[in-house]
Amino acid sequence: MMEYRRLGRSGLMISKIALGTMNFGNPTDREESFRIIDAALDGGVNLFDCADAYSEGESERILGEAFCRNGRREEIFLTSKVFMRTGDGPNDGGNSRHHVLAACEKSLRRLHTDYIDIYFLHRTDFSVPQEEILAALDLLVRQGKVRHIGCSTHPPWRVVEAYWIADRHHFPKFVSEQPPYNLLDRRAETEIIPMCRAYDLGIISWSPLAQGVLAGRYRDATKIPPGSRGALKKVYAERITQQGIAVAQSLAERAKAKGCTLPQFAAAWVLHQKGITATIVGPRTLEHFKDLIGAVDVSLDASDREFCDSLVPPGTHVSDHFNSAGWRTGDPPSQIPSS
What amino acid positions are annotated as catalytic residues? Predict the structure, then answer.
């Protein structure tokens, strides 16, 4: 049965499983996407996570059409994100006032909605003062086009800086951070999660299955299957390691002994960690979603958590899911990526 948790200072009660839509449009076709959306609604999911860069805007179009068809827009919280490059122009990316305002208008049109419930900064933009970024978001909130704001994969110090800038200028404050978090990369535990708990930010984590490694989809880090996410881009391939695959194999045995699937165990592990509000699952097929939503009914005891700690100790990692955030190494990217 679905459980709902408070999303930080927003007071919103959101499902602990959020539906990620990155696959909608590519590789998941429209009709299969619609089936997944309807199944998520029927399963109690009320947070649908999207971004303008997903499938070059097609993911937003599919979501917008789905809610026009089923008439259930008011039942859910809809998110989108801005930052990634969405065109060839010099201002078609980043978090400048110009791009934030323009990107939001385009997302609203694709989503066929008057407002976005939570609008996320997909990554931090070190080239733009945070005062300018927050002022742009403040305008969108005052116009009624955005109801809450959040950030994704941000350095903790940058989030705290934004908090105090917002406090000083009476701008809206972030209600949630979206970090990568799974058993293979636990570095969010060292600073991001404690920061969120201290400042009452919700945590909606991404990649609970470690990009499919914790679903058992890879057997050899040097032989990535064609058509898998790891085969799409170098940044994805870098996250697949032999150490991570070995952890997945050990975890699969534990999951079998508990009577659940490996993906269910991996997602349940995230949901059992302190400070986590929800985790985003991004199924490619309806069958994948039906399996993943079963994670809400998996209960992990102390011995299960100790077993996981023995595989990957708290705060450590065997796979780098922060590799799209240059700030982790002190080397912010000079170019804005497309995804």
Answer: 54
